[in-house]
Design brief:
CATH topology of the largest domain in chain A: TIM Barrel
Largest interface: A-B, 118 and 118 residues
EC number (chains A, B): 2.3.3.14
Oligomer: homodimer
Order of helices and strands of chain A: HEHEHEHEHHEHEHEHEHHHEHEHHHH
Number of domains of chain A: 2
Structural class of chain A: alpha/beta
Largest sheet of chain A: 8 strands, parallel, barrel
Enzyme class (chains A, B): transferase
CATH class of the largest domain in chain A: Alpha Beta
Function (chains A, B): Catalyzes the aldol-type condensation of 2-oxoglutarate with acetyl-CoA to yield homocitrate. Carries out the first step of the alpha-aminoadipate (AAA) lysine biosynthesis pathway.
Pathway (chains A, B): Amino-acid biosynthesis; L-lysine biosynthesis via AAA pathway; L-alpha-aminoadipate from 2-oxoglutarate: step 1/5
Protein name (chains A, B): homocitrate synthase
Chain lengths: 438, 438
């Protein structure tokens, strides 16, 4: 048995060496771009298709600057042929001199392309529906027509010296042979990227992995992916696409887009930082995420969802006694994401009937009181009893603790540091607004 | 070339036969439970660990009944040792005579087990931390101690004739050899289910697939999975786990749970109905989803997130002209999920600058007016021009159309049916509340 233990110990150490982060890139994915991905930020294109969105020119410029400051690689804008103002706004943003490259998104048509290349963009994203559904009910064209149009538009845009992406629409319901044929063709004539789009938001991760991996074997250019979130898989599909060799992911702030939207910028940051913290921190100003989300949420008049990754009001709140105990000992036990990376703070919720004596003990210390463990356990039981009757607030808990403490001890000198437990009111202010809390 | 076309046509027909639904189960997953999954609904356990949650006995009973009516297979309750009221509530819910089996969730300890089996539950879910982190910072036990406790608790619960599940906690950071050893042991002594838990919410789909598939080769009992949503992958991980052979998924209404929660019931329904509509509709009353979510959201004082799958206010709203056109011709072009399955309606957003003439044409018909296509295109341009200046509402669009129409035509007889475009005000009422819309 002691041999076995010795073996296990050695084995564990070897294991740690091989894979320090179990959520890091899979070492067998040699084409993976999990550590070298780029973002195409589409709040000002896909996001404008969100039901509530109406961005003025000033608001578009404010958002574009904030995205640029955050560090996104590309900013995608609504087609200049959508309306006269769309065209003027596109030209205005191109003149801002941002670090991010500016793209606009057009139909695969020379009429659109001619307008797009004159706006001053760094690149054009071309899209056309290749599924049976879109060929029948949208544009009514067959694959040979689509291919011919694609070649004409691509060669025209390239002749202007700017980047060009060719994407299919509704890729997962398109015939795989049609898809690979057209991607191979456009790759040969020199597109910068080909795009896969889950336009209806129903693809699943393994399906994404297979299609991207197959496409990767056919083209030499970069692969970009666009995932809608109708079935809640947009973030996971994005991650899996990167594992399979895709390089660029389309995102928008809070995922704003048609229907319930696309891969959200913040959620993808959570996913990617769990895989490669160093790369993400080197490229993106994560501490500006909350302000960026608030800016866009205000512009389209929505609230940050209560359960939003990272910035949802409870994303770093720990409640059950068993969780609170371990978090106090070592935050990594229940937290891979560090709230400090995003300029946020952790919150241990101890004023409730699920609380444990470790959380109460920590509160006792914060209050600069002195109780033995047995005393803390006794006062915890009193708190749980009141918590059974009604919702508790911090004052309830503090007064129970103080009453109990009154006779048994004297205050210690010097307040202890209390980063693990913050005052509830302070958490509300410091963190993010709690929805509908009175 | 015509041979090629002929070949493609035949090939397309064959393709349709082989796989009617491209989002259906992968035919090569012979262990997949995508078509035979079960739900363990944990709003009254994991959901009670949500920061805002305080459920009275009456509210717990109301929620339990609603979940049972919806059709969930299991309802999981907070441990009866958490507080005296938790125990009383557990007993009360067991006495309701629901169709769903009632479970309670306890630590792997005889003290907890003895209380749990006396409450009247149909089964006990046992959990213990097996990761280095939890072994070091939570309970401080080694694997041989964990195994010994597990065997004692399992044999005790089995002796009472009720179901028993054994789950590790933080499974993806646990040593794979430790995990497989203990699962194999508990499977041999006859647990009903073993559980995998992504307690920190950082697992990714391919990682999940590998672990579940490996575990499936080691145990003969059912596999249950529990995914936190910190990195936005809980729904995708659940789906992938089912593909790999897991049978049961832990969910809660709106995903309520520790931090930003777990796999949401509604989001998983969206995912599963895209894969197998028939199975989902045969088991679950989807048209009650909205009421169920509203009940729980009110109880914990949060708003339904604007981008929630299915019940988010914009989940079935289509805006861009190119989308609206195709949706009007055939909803399946941009929609796999049918709003009618959930008792909801589709909404084509036509009062904005991204609108297209097909959407306006449909509105013209709804208004019982008669314009030629060229006239519709002309009036569409007028609408887009105003849409460039400020946000539009339905009245704006209607008055532009009516002004334009005044001299050129006369009203047709008989109103056309208008299921595709509904009045915006009506959509607000019929669908779900729009956050912060004035």
């Amino acid at each position: 048995m002691s041999d076995m233990k010795e073996y296990q110990k050695v084995s564990e150490e070897q294991h740690k060496k091989v894979q320090v982060n179990p959520y890091g890139p899979n070492p067998s994915d040699y084409l993976s771009n999990v550590r070298s991905f780029q973002l195409i930020e589409s709040t000002l294109r896909e996001g404008e298709q969100f039901a509530n969105a109406f961005f003025t020119t000033e608001k578009k410029i404010e958002i574009a600057k904030a995205l640029d400051d955050f560090g996104v690689d590309y900013i995608e804008l609504t087609s200049p042929v959508a309306s006269e103002q769309s065209r003027a706004d596109c030209e205005a943003i191109c003149k801002l001199g941002l670090k991010a490259k500016i793209l606009t998104h057009i139909r695969c048509h020379m009429d659109d392309a001619r307008v797009a290349v004159e706006t001053g963009v760094d690149g054009v994203d071309v899209v056309i529906g290749t599924s049976q559904f879109l060929r029948q009910f949208s544009h009514g064209k067959d694959m040979s027509y689509i291919t011919k149009s694609a070649i004409e538009v691509i060669e025209f845009v390239k002749s202007k010296g700017i980047e060009i992406r060719f994407s299919s629409e509704d890729s997962f319901r398109s015939d795989i042979v049609d898809l690979l044929n057209i991607y191979k063709t456009v790759d040969k004539i020199g597109v910068n990227r080909v795009g896969i789009a889950d336009t209806v938001g129903c693809a699943n991760p393994r399906q994404v992995y297979e299609l991207v991996k197959t496409l990767k074997s056919v083209v030499s250019c970069d692969i970009e992916c666009h995932f809608h979130n109708d079935t809640g898989c947009a973030i996971a599909n994005s991650y899996t696409a990167l594992e399979a060799g895709a390089k660029l992911i389309d995102v928008s702030v809070l995922g704003l887009g048609e229907r319930n939207g696309i891969t959200p910028l913040g959620g993808l940051m959570a996913r990617m930082i769990a895989a490669d913290r160093e790369y993400v921190l080197s490229k993106y100003k994560l501490h500006k995420l909350r302000d960026l989300e608030n800016l866009v949420a205000d512009a389209v008049q929505v609230n940050i969802p209560f359960n939003n990754p990272i910035t949802g009001f409870c994303a770093f709140t720990h409640k059950a006694g068993i969780h609170a105990k371990a978090i106090l000992a070592n935050p990594s036990t229940y937290e891979i994401l560090s709230p400090a990376d995003f300029g946020l703070t952790r919150y241990i919720h101890f004023a409730n009937r699920l609380t444990g004596w470790n959380a109460i003990k920590s509160r006792v210390e914060q209050l600069n009181l002195n109780l033995t463990d047995d005393q803390v356990k006794e006062v915890t039981n009193k708190i749980k009893k009141l918590g059974d009757i009604r919702p508790l607030n911090i004052d309830d808990v503090d007064s129970i603790i103080k009453d109990y403490h009154a006779d048994v001890s004297t205050p210690r000198m010097g307040a202890t540091e209390g980063p693990a437990i913050v005052d509830e009111d302070q958490a509300s202010l410091d963190n993010v607004k709690r929805p509908r809390l009175n």
